[in-house]
Design goal:
The chain has about 190 residues and is mostly helical. It contains 11 helices and no strands.
């Protein structure tokens, strides 16, 4: 379906908004940017809650428009917020155990995500009512807003100015000189194309 493909493309569009997030992190701090844009991410999905209304369900174009704007807003805010992730994880993980920490976090995150998606799949496999989708959207929005509020209560990472005050083009040039970075980009390109 073309509409589903369009919605899925928004996920990759979020990567372009990393560029917009960098100067915001330098100006407002990593915690402020990530917490604020993570909240905006979930608030952007609020129009999806309207799709359970009978008047909206009767208008297929309106339903897709509400979902489309919600998904686009969700991924736009995600891209801006992700720009703040590196200094936050660096502060939490520390220098020595960063690799092990990231590995554990990814394992926990993927395991939890898999469990949640299995439950959602089971619930949705039994001819669900439209209100079931609304319930899932609503729970996701509330949990996301709680996580954002929690994020905003964390202390700002130290040494944030490193890398975030450097202009984008010199930063890209410096990255492209690094052989390891070139390999990573090539690998990422091959895996996603």
């Amino acid at each position: 379906n073309t509409v589903i493909g369009l919605f899925e493309s928004f996920m990759y569009l979020s990567l372009a908004f990393l560029v917009a997030g960098r100067p915001l992190v330098a100006r407002f701090g990593a915690i402020g940017v990530m917490g604020t844009f993570w909240a905006a991410r979930y608030l952007a999905m609020a129009p999806a809650l309207l799709t359970a209304l009978p008047a909206v369900q009767a208008n297929r174009a309106l339903t897709f428009a509400l979902l489309g704007f919600g998904v686009l807003g969700f991924h736009t805010a995600k891209g801006i917020g992700i720009a703040a992730e590196k200094p936050i994880i660096g502060e939490v993980a520390g220098e020595k155990d960063r690799g092990a920490f990231l590995s554990r976090i990814q394992s926990l995150n993927q395991s939890f995500s898999l469990g949640v998606w299995l439950i959602i799949g089971l619930v949705l496999s039994r001819n669900p009512l439209p209100q079931t989708y609304t319930l899932f959207f609503g729970v996701g929005i509330v949990v996301g807003l709680i996580a954002s509020w929690t994020m905003l209560r964390l202390p700002e990472p130290r040494g944030l100015e490193k890398g975030y005050t450097e202009p984008l083009l010199p930063s890209i040039r410096r990255g492209l000189v690094d052989v390891g970075f070139k390999r990573l980009i090539a690998l990422f390109f091959v895996m996603t194309v």
